[in-house]
Amino acid sequence: MSAWNKLKLLTLISTITMPLAFAASNSSMPLISESSTTYQAKFTQLESNANGRLGIMAINTANNQQIEYRSNELFPFCSTGKVMVVGAILKASESNTQLMQRQLHYSKQDTESSGYAPITKQHIADGMNVSALSQAAIAYSDNGAMNQLLQLLGGPQAITSYARSLGDNKFNLVRTEPQLNTAIPNDERDTTTPAAMALSLQKLGLGTALDKKQQTRLQEWLKANTTGDKRIRAGVPKGWTVGDKTGTGSYGTTNDIAVIWPPHAKPIVLVVYFTQNKKDAKPNDQVIAQATKIVIDEFATASKK
């Protein structure tokens, strides 16, 4: 049996079992109606039910099939932008072999002002090296770590410039943590498009933007993420491996970007961004999980044609 046929079999099995799981875990939100016959219609219904704006870009690297929904609209990236920052750090470490072991020191005020510093706040006395800060930024979404890495690289503009070097003309980092998470509608600061982020993530996580050693590190940190269990990870079949980076901000902004490794098949790159109109709206993990399931089901359906 070919790798893709194995993927089809696993996915078809999942379509039998996963709706029951979703019905139990997402009872507060209506499931997508079976009458929505196209994935575009399903995304539109999901978006409408959730009272927000949804952006999706998915790439099946086995055949380059793409699934898009508002993929060229700007969305606040929030902490998903940490992947670009750590990507820039890893790139710099290719020529500066001592960079990852460099010890950085910071103050209690640095951690408190960052808004969220679960790891860096534990090391105020001794500091952390660049490798540990990078891991904290990805796996724990530590804002204090993000700000230290930004300062080391030369600030937000340096990261935007790095994105340009990847061919990404949309990523626009302007502020530091936590200000970059304001997610104000129509504010182009700290935004990107799902399409641009997906292509950049593909280059960093699977392509040639990083040397193999650095890329493996990034993959390991993404796989070790502790903040995404209810988002993309909740929408894939059991047994699939996910390396992801979440992002959360004002206006109910709920994001997740991931490289997904199905068993016996090539990876899928997925970006799901969601934002709302009310500043105090709550994050909605279920939207991300359900959008992910639609993507996986569509890839499986397309493979049968």
Strand content: 15-25%
Helix percent reads 40-55%
Stretches where pLDDT falls below 50 for ≥5 residues?
1-36
* Rg over C-alpha atoms, rounded to the nearest angstrom: 19 Å
CATH architecture: 3-Layer(aba) Sandwich
How many beta-strand runs? 9
Superfamily (CATH H level) name: DD-peptidase/beta-lactamase superfamily
Number of helices: 10
CATH topology: Beta-lactamase
Distance between the termini: 17 Å
The chain-level structural class is alpha+beta
The first-level CATH class name: Alpha Beta
Largest sheet: 5 strands, antiparallel
Give the mean pLDDT.
91
Could you give the order of strands across the largest sheet? 2-1-9-8-7
How would you describe the shape?
A: globular
Care to describe what's here?
There is one protein chain. The protein has 305 residues and is an alpha+beta fold. It has one domain: Beta-lactamase, CATH 3.40.710.10. It contains ten helices and nine strands. It has a five-stranded antiparallel β-sheet, sandwiched between helices. A two-stranded antiparallel sheet has the order 3-6. A hairpin with a 6-residue loop joins β8 and β9. α2 packs antiparallel against α10, α3 crosses α6 and α5 crosses α6. The longest helix is centred in the N-terminal third of the chain and has 23 residues. It is globular and about 55 Å long. The two termini are 17 Å apart. The N terminus is likely disordered.
Summary of the model, kept short:
Helices cover 42% and strands 16% of the residues.
